[in-house]
């Protein structure tokens, strides 16, 4: 038990342990990297190590404090309980008055994007003003143990005008508390917030290590583990939760939509496909956009005649190569720029299907 169980990014682990050992823990940390790379897991481990009753720069996993904080490893039941307690009919006022705070130990809080309701969650959960105000008040309380920790998962979902409130905490940081912000990219946060955090970017874990990780934690066959490791792009958490059959279906849907767009299919038929991807899938729209990026990466190599053995979608090589013969690198560049534009507009709450419609209608071969 301890940091030795963490997979990959050992330089980050070493830096965090050094902070604890020297008792010089900063007031704000920013962890960035892809989904499933381990940002949240390491933040939770750091919270345990910062308050462990037996160890100084690691955590035993056995003392009462470690066990209580370890309950945050699976936040889903805690989120469900918090939403149920607030009530299914929660309105804006109720959401701000009763912020969603996950707390299994008095010194460690987990803040997650608030979906508002359990049965009918909002389309895009986000960290809300009520949660930020609660953190602002509690950050200055004296800890019961060694240090107070506030983990903000999905810190990039804060509205920028709300983030100004959070900035006040960073401008006058408490001595005995640390805020850990988790985001996919640092650019999603205000520059004034980034500049006040010690930043760590999490690099992808080698596919071979991800395969070993899956062997110890799943019943998947060797070929399935290898494919899952390749599709995860170096994110152990993504590989562990990946449904290969569902993933193949979604990626084939993306490729089919692009193929039909290149062929100049009628708008009505294209829009029916975009409606399916943007509104009727269980997978989040952000993750579906990530599938588009992975397909574009493979198409870039295929359109130039490359026979790379490192395709992001190795199980769809035949489909990728077939579409790659119909396009060129200029098409991929135009498509990628269009996807970048759509992703940027998503932060301003543009309609998902409208944005995807605009993208695919621009992809006809010229």
Number of structurally distinct domains: 3
CATH class of the largest domain: Alpha Beta
Instruction: Please compute the radius of gyration using only Cα atoms.
Output: 22 Å
Output the strand order for the largest sheet.
Answer: 2-3-4-5-1-6
- Share of helix among residues? 40-55%
Q: Give the rounded overall mean pLDDT.
A: 87
Biggest β-sheet, characterized?
6 strands, mixed
Task: Give the helix/strand class.
Answer: alpha/beta
Distance between the termini: 58 Å
Shape: globular
* Secondary-structure element order, N to C: HEHHHHEEHEHEHEHHHHHHHHH
- Please report the total strand number as a whole number: 6
> So how many helices?
17
User: Any low-confidence stretches, pLDDT <50, length ≥5?
Assistant: none
Q: What is the CATH fold-level name of the largest domain? A: Rossmann fold
Descriptive notes:
The protein is of the alpha/beta class and 366 residues long. The protein has 3 domains: 3-201, Rossmann fold; 207-242; 244-361, Zinc Finger, Delta Prime, domain 3, CATH 1.20.272. Helix content is 52%, strand content 8%. It contains 17 helices and 6 strands. The protein has helices at 10-22, 39-51, 64-70, 76-86, 92-97, 129-138, 160-171, 191-194, 207-217, 222-231, 236-241, 244-262, 267-279, 285-303, 317-324, 329-346, 352-361; strands at 28-32, 102-105, 108-111, 148-153, 177-183, 198-201. It has a 6-stranded mixed beta sheet with strand order 2-3-4-5-1-6. Strand 4, helix 7 and strand 5 form a beta-alpha-beta unit. Helix 12 (244-262) packs antiparallel against helix 13. The chain is globular.
